[in-house]
Amino acid sequence: APEQAARMKKLQEQEKRQKVEFRKRMEQEVSQFIQATGEPRRRFQPMNKIERSILHDVAEVAGLTSFSFGDDEDSRYVMVFKKEFAPSDEELDAYRRGEEWDPARAEERRRLRELAAQQEEAELECGPAPPGPPNDYKDKYRHLIGSDAAKAAARTMEANKTYGCVPVANKRDTRSIEEAMNEIRAKKRLRQAEDE
Predict the structure, then answer these.
(1) What residue ranges of the chain have pLDDT lower than 70?
(2) CATH number for position 17
(3) Where is the R3H domain (predicted)?
(4) Is residue 121 part of a domain?
(5) pLDDT for 157
(6) Whole-angstrom distance, CA of residue 188 vs CA of residue 196
(7) Which of 67, 61, 73 is nearest to 88 (CA)?
């Protein structure tokens, strides 16, 4: 147990030293990045979670903006941006998708969005579309009946004058409601008398 404790203490001290060395190295790289005038952003190599958190801390102390990108833990990397070249939401989305940022393509997308918004505004200014179906319903059935057959059938068709009216002679039951109810009651009484 004492040997294990000594070994653990030695490993912890070694890890602490490695973290301090890594922090110093990152501070030097970040200061070089700040002094480089033509470089608005810098991408660092993939690193583990602890190293990324150290780099984020160093960037924050230096007054820079930093983001982590990548899907799995092994391929996640940090990008550091100068404050005056802070990334837009579109740029961050491109990096999150794993794409390279192209300002010309982003400008084209922005212009297309503006055109679409202007078209929507123009449509709203014209007012709502007139009510009714967007196309003629006859077109839907033209391939079945043709255009001339429907017109000819409409001219020859006559309405049935008795539509909706059923003559009394065609009805099965000609009794009134009262007569039907009286008959049902009489059958009930007869059954009750037979049961008794």
Answers:
(1) 128-138, 145, 147, 149-164, 166-171
(2) 3.30.1370.50
(3) 20-83
(4) no
(5) 59
(6) 13
(7) 67
Q: How confident is the model at residue 86, as a pLDDT?
A: 81
Q: What's the CA gap between 53 and 11, in Å, rounded? A: 21
Does 110 fall in a domain? no
Q: Which pLDDT does position 193 carry in this prediction?
A: 94
Instruction: Say whether 91 sits in a helix, a strand or coil.
Output: helix
The alpha carbon dihedral of 171, 177, 178, 183 has a sign of positive
At 190 the pLDDT is 95
Domain of 59, in residue numbers: 7-87
Q: What is d(CA 100, CA 49) in angstroms, rounded to the nearest whole number?
A: 23
Rounded Cα distance between 94 and 82, Å, is 18
Cα angle vertex 138, ends 133, 139, to 5°? 85
**How high is the pLDDT of residue 152?**
67
Number of compact structural domains in the chain: 1
Query: Could you tell me the CA-to-CA distances from 79 to 38, 46, 64, 147 in Å, in that order?
Result: 16, 10, 10, 68
Instruction: Note whether 56 and 78 are within 8 A (CB).
Output: yes
Q: Which residue has the tokens 């903006």?
A: 65
d(CA 87, CA 100): 13
Q: Is 79 domain-assigned?
A: yes
- Confirm if 95 and 65 have CB atoms less than 8 A apart: no
Domain-located, residue 66: yes
- Cα 183 from Cα 37, distance rounded (Å): 107
